[in-house]
Amino acid sequence: MPAFKELVFSGVQPTGNLHLGNYLGAIKRFVAMQAQYECLYCVVDLHAITVWQDPGELTRQIREVTAAFLAAGIDPARSVVFNQSQVPQHAELAWIFNCVARLGWLNRMTQFKEKAGKDRENASIGLYDYPVLMAADILAYRATHVPVGEDQKQHLELTRDIAQKFNNDFAGAIAEHGHGEAFFPLTEPLIGGPAARVMSLRDGTKKMSKSDPSDYSRINLTDDPDAIAQKVRKAKTDAEPLPSETAGLEKRPEADNLVGIFAALNDASREDVLREYGGAQFSAFKGALVDLAVAKLGPIGAEMKRLVADPGHIDAVLAEGAARAEAIAAPNIAAVKDIVGFVRRR
Ligand code: TYM
Fold first, then answer.
1. 82: β partners
2. Dist. CA 188–CA 186, nearest whole Å
3. CATH 3.40.50.620 occupies which residues in the chain?
4. How far apart are alpha carbons 38 and 35 in whole angstroms?
5. Name one Pfam family in it (predicted).
6. Of the residues 11, 50, 146, 308, which has the maximum number of CB atoms within 10 A of its CB?
């Protein structure tokens, strides 16, 4: 595999409340990656419409996710911040990848099965095809690294399969057009840290999710300090004090989750947290967690509110980001079309 220029890409759907899982598993890590990499962060509105979205609400959510990116510390002067539908190359490459990906590969996707549920026949074709568009998002930029939460692992494996098959199927044309042995990198997922899978505050065996009917299951980025405090205090726990070693968190999903959240918010490890709070009762630990969560999330929520009050500014950031994104994607997609054998407009 030839060396590809290091580039980070990731995306977040503008569908409902952003929560602590989105922040700790993804957005907070996006911010940190800016120091080391050239990064593109995308509000994936084409993905959002794979399930019905009220149009006015979708517009609002696109701006809100953009505001969350900026409020969390993504610097739009450095990183490329944009929404997917403004860059036509995503949908264009997705079509070509539809003809590379195999039905059998998509049939294995667990997220489709979960989201479509029992009413599979009534799911949109877009929902089924969702992971192919995701591969196009990443590979339109030939991105080498993708920070995501654990739940996206299977989709990133599919992205690698598509890249590999394209590289193999078109090996001759790729070489002929001067791109060497491979046109697409085999993108590396970056899944990690203490909060790669943040769980529901009501049930430590279920993922924290936008679609959970109970708002007490999650902390939203826009929750005020009172709401954060109430949700943490009501979070499910068990009867034992915290252990001193991480081994003691096994089979204690709620304790493990709260310790993981504390660690991620504090840029620490579970070991660090237990060194300080091992032996503590949940009442004391939850008090410290409320203080920490309010200190870290409060300013982000407040800044998001300030930013969404000025949609003109957000839209300008997105427009500038889209132009920069397209400048990277357009030559890549033009090269893909040559490789596939299409005739270019001259
Ligand atoms: P989405 O919008 O569902 O979630 C955005 C990011 O948040 C992470 N995440 C979590 N991390 C830890 N614990 C949780 N409980 C939790 N819930 C969500 C997700 O893993 C994700 O990183 N398919 C993607 C969006 C996407 C994308 C892409 C991502 C579209 N194209 C290309 C990367 C690259 C999604 O639905 O994320």
1. 42
2. 6
3. 7-196+311-340
4. 8
5. tRNA-synt_1b
6. 11
Nearest to 41 by CA among 129, 145, 155: 145
For residue 266 the two structure tokens come to 């504090």
Residues 270/249, Cβ–Cβ less than 8 Å: yes
What stretches of 3-156 adopt beta strand conformation (E)? 8-12, 39-43, 80-83, 145-147
pTM of the model: 0.97
pLDDT score of 346: 82
Catalytic annotation, pick one of 5, 28, 118, 207: 207
What are the beta bridge partners of residue 11? 42
Say what the pLDDT of residue 333 is.
98
Residue to mutate (ligand 1; options 9, 12, 42, 258; most atoms within 8 A of CB): 12
Please state which CATH number belongs to domain 7-196+311-340. Answer: 3.40.50.620
Active site residue 5: no
Q: What is the CATH number of domain 215-306?
A: 1.10.240.10
Along the chain (346 residues), what's the average pLDDT of each consecutive run of 10 residues?
91 96 98 97 98 98 98 98 98 98 97 93 97 98 98 98 98 98 98 96 97 96 96 97 97 98 98 98 98 97 98 98 98 98 92
Q: With both helix axes pointing from N to C terminus, report the angle between 311-340 and 282-308 in degrees, rounded to the nearest 10.
A: 90
What is the secondary structure of 255-322 as a DSSP string?
HHHHHHHHHHHTT--HHHHHHHHTT--HHHHHHHHHHHHHHHHHHHHHHHHHHHT-HHHHHHHHHHHH
Q: How far is the CA of 176 from the centre of ligand 1 (A)?
A: 37
Checking phi first, is residue 267 left (phi over 0); if not, alpha (psi -120 to 50) or beta? Answer: left
Catalytic status, residue 28: no
Task: Name the CA dihedral angle for 158, 162, 163, 168, rounded to a multiple of 10 degrees.
Answer: 140
The secondary element (H helix, E strand) that includes residue 188 is strand 188-190
Q: Range(s) for CATH 1.10.240.10 in the chain?
A: 215-306
Is 115 considered catalytic here?
Answer: yes
